[in-house]
Amino acid sequence: MATIATSFLTRARQAPSALAITFGGQRTSFGELADRVRRLAGVMRTDMGHAAGDRVVLCMENRPEFLEILLACWTAGLCAVPLNAKLHPKEVAQIAADCGAGAVFTSEALTDGIAAELAGLAPAPRLCVVGSAAYRRLADAVAIDAVDTGPADLAWIFYTSGTTGRSKGAMLSHRNLLFMSFAYAADIERIEPGDVSIHAAPLSHGAGLYCLPHLIAGGHQVILPGFDPADVLDAFARHRNITMFAAPTMITRLLQAMRDDRDVGGLHTLCYGGGPMYVSDLRRALDRFGPRLYQLFGQGESPMTITGLSRRDHEGDGGPEHLARLGSCGIARTGVEIRVVDEAGQDQPVGTAGEVVTRSDCVMAGYWNNPDASANALRDGWLWTGDIGYLDAQGYLTLKDRSKDMVISGGTNIYPREIEEVLLRHPSVLECSVVGRPHPDWGEETIAFVVCRPGTPVGAAELDALCLQNVARFKRPKGYRFVGSLPKNNYGKVLKTSLRQALVDEGEDA
Fold it and tell me: No. of H helices and E strands in the chain?
């Protein structure tokens, strides 16, 4: 069966001198990239002794090696497990242990912390440091051809934080990733050889997934080390036929950084997703970027592919119907079914809110090593997304809320339960609850409400240090509220809506 890897290698043979990757002053052709991929795949199957289906963790900042390792995994018949480079080393080790990773590829900047945590695993996965002399010597290995892979074989395990504090790994097959790539071509744009894809968001998530349609079509990947508005706007001016995936907060920061006369003529499509975008911000973006925006709604469990709001859908007269459409996340993508249902799985009437469920060849096989979570999310072939929304008469989906109390900050999902479990480790903390508060740049930020045990006060700095020892820096609360009790209903459940309202009231009283 054709895979992303075999499709990429076919493209590389057809146009070996075409530019595949630019990273700063470093440029790599398709032929050079394919040669490195095949040699690295040979090392994985021979020197490292990996067998088909073995898991390999990738945890590094944005850099070209991410793509060569990703493609090498698939060429060797292995399953890639990309992780956010901002995760705490303990979180990296927990995921490596959960998926039974045989190797972890990371960067020199992250090595020490990750190595210390991996050493405590039995067996400990092999640690490979990109950029090191040992890694550079891998280029001398014997290249191999792509291993025969079936459509249902695992390609990518997409880990997302769990509401129980345990990370869940969505199992994505080669069929899922190919379907995602075909849907991109059907719904968003046809990629021509040489078209540019700029990556400023983490390659471990949405940006990396949207590398794939461009790699198999001969696109040119321009990788930035991170998101800096000035660097992105400079890239818009230097390149042509550009596509970029961005979280809504990235777009608002670009708008803040732009001069009125800034040239964005090279931008063709700006895909945004990963969190809600307020209509007022979206209208400002349309004024500055023109009809170049495409909104997508997807999850790691159905990567990037549930609904979409096309460039044409963004256009309009600013009237009520147009504004309502801008507030939606579009219609079902090509080859995708969506429904809005009640708790029993019965379809809700038009305009009535319920849980969004979806079915397509993009939907995951389940969660790795977690049958209970899989059974809860996948029912009769449908993925229950946990998002609450409603459909209008034309099939446009509008999301209202998130049933899992997830906080989305800078396009990254943060689950409050994960932070709460860490805070409750402190002996002075009796109860706590973490909620999201709107933030002008990041979309949301986390705030912790803490109830201390009588006579044992604790300061915010001490709790902050505890969080930094156990979870990624971006997840830690950005503020603490010490209260005498938490609001609860008759069943003892904390009323997070009341806590969010308290934060709103704070802002009104300021």
Answer: 18, 25
